[in-house]
Amino acid sequence: MLNATEKLKKRDFYLNKLIAFKDTEPVKVITGIRRCGKSSLMKLMIAYLRESGIADEQIIAMNFESMEYRSMDVKAFYDYVVKKKPENKKVYLFFDEVQRIAEWQDAINSFRVDFPCDIYITGSNAYLLSSEFATYLSGRYVEIKMLPLSFKEFIDFHGYKVIERKNPSGRMVKKISDNDGNIFDASEVFEAYLKFGGMPGIADVGLEQDKAYTLLDGVYSTVVMRDILEREKRRGFRQITDADLLRKIIMFLADNIGSNTSVTSIGNILASEGLLDNNRKKKPAVQTVQAYVGALLESYIFYEAKRYDIKGKEYLRTLGKYYIVDTGLRNYLLGLRDIDTGHILENIVYFELLRRGYDTAIGKIGNVEVDFVATNADEKIYYQVAQTISSESTKERELRPLMQIRDSYEKIILTMDNSLTNTIEGIKIINIIDWLLG
User: Fold this and answer.
1) What is the pLDDT of residues 255-287, one digit of tens each?
2) Which of 39, 136, 314, 320 gives the lowest tally of CB atoms within 10 Å of its CB?
3) Whether residues 183 and 135 fall in one domain
């Protein structure tokens, strides 16, 4: 799985999470969209084990995307591992895309109880953590949720470094340098991040649109064909049968990131705007759209943010929002036409909050919305995201929801503006690039 000459880019944020659970009972389950770096994270963990003195014979790594294991059933899988493991030594098991083995959970559970082992598995679909798996390993697995590159990681993967300089006014500002010593404004590199997104593989092909979008086409095709359409066949389900309808729903959700959306409205709008095939006599049933959207959420291409009533302190069932896991994927799907920068910034902030460990919802207070209510065990923070608040009308619009919240939790507006004004009536104003690099 990892040869001695292979050079891996660091993903310390995720690697440290795995290391923290090393030699503990729970199965470590790494989830996330295809090509976001799960296999590389496993290789990084294997390298860490070797550096820590674990012998090669104690490490068994299998990637079930390989033809080597294509014909295996669950019994052959179990027998292969038992035959290969060393006697009287703990073994470290790494299984990539293990869901391709039918009833794989039986083998995982058997490994746990039959011999001393530490287990790490990946999957590109939330079906991996279905009720069947949860039943077998109730309370005995920990999920490491992996996302494409953050802006910080994007800078590192593409060979840039962040430097700080004092500008003529005496304020410290962040600049970006490349390996040749060229200096760029951080906003220039951020523009590339908005355009190309954070799939790690783009660092290998370079920031050229044709090459980058060829890679993203492979990600999209694999997610749709393998993780959605083929998975349905393996499960014996026939809910997701219309590839064209699936593509239309993907395009609709990609075009409406950050907009209030319901399953009912998706079907209505597709029908009313003539986006369905001419031979389709009526709009798809709500249950059909729900199944297709559910499959997209399970494959980690879209994430759903629920609405939260700030005064009532409860989650609402209606009109959540959907965000796409990678802005480069969105640009590949829709093209670089009239980019809605405001919603793209909102999309980026949403996933950054997830990376930072926050439960993130859309806030509702009275008749207005707060872009995000971010909570964890220790704190709650309210966020508004705006491309600019340079005009008085825009500033008032973004401030109004936050000013209606009467509690004492932190309130922040993230914007692309560079302003000397740090707070307005106790509400912090932070440049979004500074926040992402903070």
Assistant:
1) 999 999 988 888 888 877 766 655 555 677 888
2) 314
3) no
